[in-house]
Every structure is written in structure tokens, then in C-alpha cells.
Amino acid sequence: MIHIITDSTNDLDLDTITKHHIEVLPLYVNFSDESFKDGVNITTKELYELVEKKNELPKTAAIPQHTFVEVFQAYVAAGDEILFTGISKQMSRTYENAVLAAKEVDEKKIFIVDSMNLSTGIGLLVLKACKYRDQGFSAKEIAEALEKDNKRVLSQFAIERMDYLYKGGRCSGMAKLFGTLLKIKPIIAVRDGKMHVAKKPHGKMRVALDSMMEQLKNDLPRLDRDVVVITHSLAFEYCDYIKANISKFLGDIPILCTVAGCVISSHCGQGTIGILYMVNKE
Fold it and tell me: Please, are residues 91 and 229 in contact by the beta-carbon 8 Å criterion?
């Protein structure tokens, strides 16, 4: 048996995770006086309530090596194989801890792939892994395929609020002031495992949403047709707006809507929304 394992930053919904027999290991969300397991004993809504109550942004922490060792050992002892992919190694120690655990347990039966992504950018790769598993691929073959697929994932997020970036030390006070005055809604893209500002539309949030949808439309000729994902941090109205509009040109390509977990939300803030998909090889 091949076990597909990911971490809680994959941001797929519970129904999809259950349907595809995916195992999810949580990262940690830590306030000064409390620690939570992402998606286990705290929800995104509860996260924002605690931020307001404590007037404090939490820190996030990787899955420790010993957790991976415990999970890996149990499956390997049963004679099974493991494929793990989670948050980009450029963004968390989770990948490194998984690699160290695999070396400690059995590298011949455990395969670790860097997603080079976050949120449902990871989720898209996890779904590909499940598809390959169901087609009869070995764990090694799945890993080899994902090492190519991770370069085909395109992720873009529109950020509604600058304050989370500011409070988390992710932009300077001047940048926050500048963004507020010009009403900038930056679009963050993930490329080569790192986040960068792709565009700086200003005005209402819908300007940024329209820009992301236009990018998706431009990519339509080379779009992987498995699924397009809309992931948001409690931005249900924006999600409905995007889904209604992209469904007009996506045809029979499925659209999956998911809510971002606590780790992703703690870095981007409420109202953030992304469109994530894969493109075919050029």
C-alpha cells in the first residue's frame, strides 16, 4: 500500500481529503501563552478571534522530525510505502524534518517531494499523487512525476489587508502606509518555491480579483483540466464572485473552493483569496 501524506498547509477541504484517502499532519500555530495544531484544535475563524482578543499575531512552527518518524515507522513496519509532499522547503523546516525522518526510518520506502508551493498549490500536487497511485504507479514513480509536476503549478493570491503583513514583520511601516494610501491590493505569486509580488493593482478588491481571473483566462490554452482551485481566508463573497465568472469560460473543468487553514491565514490575513491551477508542459 502507498500512503499519500501531506501537511496542514495543503488547504484542501475535508471531503476531498477523505475521498482520496490523504493523511494530513498539522503544523503549529503558537501564541505567547497557547499552542495549537493547525486544523486539529483550532479553526481559521477561531484564529482570527484569538488575534483580536490577544492583540497578537501567532508564530507558526514546522512539523517536528520526531512526529514524522513516528508516522513513517508505523507504515514501514506494516510493509507499506510513503509519499510525502508539503509546504515549500523555502518557507518551512517541515520538508527538511521529513527528509531527516525518512533517512532515520527507511529511505527506500519513503519518498519526500518539495512541492515548491503553499496552500492548495500543494493540494494540487497531492491530488496528482493520488491519481498516480490509483493508476498503479509505485511510490518512486509518483515522486519522479511530482518532481516535474511541481514546476507546473501556478499560484496567485490577492491580499486584502496589509496589516497582517505589517504586524508579522513582512513589510515595513512605510510599505504599509504606501499600500494603505494607494489602496493597493497586492497579488502574490509563488514561483520557484518562493513568494513574490507579481502585481500591485490599486482600488477596490475586485480590481485584483479581475486581474487574477484574466491571468487564468490567458492560461486557458495550456491549462491542466483536472481542477482549478479557489482558496480563501473567510472571503466567501469574493469566492462566489470568482467562481461565477470563471465558470463562464472554464467549460467542464471542475472548480474546487476551499478555505485556507490557520498557518496560511496567519501570514496573509482575512479576505485573502487565490486562484490555483496547473498548466501543461510547454
Answer: no
pLDDT tens-digit series, residues 94-111? 999 999 999 999 999 999
Q: Is 94 helix (H, G, I), strand (E, B) or coil?
A: helix
- Within 13 Å of residue 65, how many CA atoms lie on the same side as its CB? 10
Phi-psi region of 110 (alpha: psi -120 to 50; beta: other; left: phi over 0): beta
| Pairing of the two strands 194-199 and 187-191 | antiparallel
Q: What is the dihedral of CA 166, 171, 172, 178, to 10 degrees?
A: -90
Burial of 217-228, coded b for 16+ CB within 10 Å and e otherwise, reads eebeeebbeebb
Q: Which three cell numbers stand for residue 38?
A: 493547525
Which residue would you say has higher pLDDT here, 165 or 260?
260
Query: The dihedral of CA 279, 199, 193, 113: what is its sign?
Result: negative
C-alpha cell at 82: 510513503
Query: In this structure, how many other beta carbons lie within 10 angstroms of the beta carbon of residue 164?
Result: 23
Cell 503544523, residue?
27
Cα 161 to Cα 185: distance, rounded to the nearest angstrom: 8
Give per-residue pLDDT as tens, 123-134.
Answer: 999 999 999 999
The three cell numbers of residue 46 are 477561531
Instruction: Report residue 194 as a C-alpha cell.
Output: 518562493
**Exposed / middle / buried, residue 169 (Cβ in 10 Å: 0-12, 13-18, 19+):** exposed
What's the chain's Rg over C-alpha atoms?
Answer: 19
Residue 202: DSSP 8-state: B
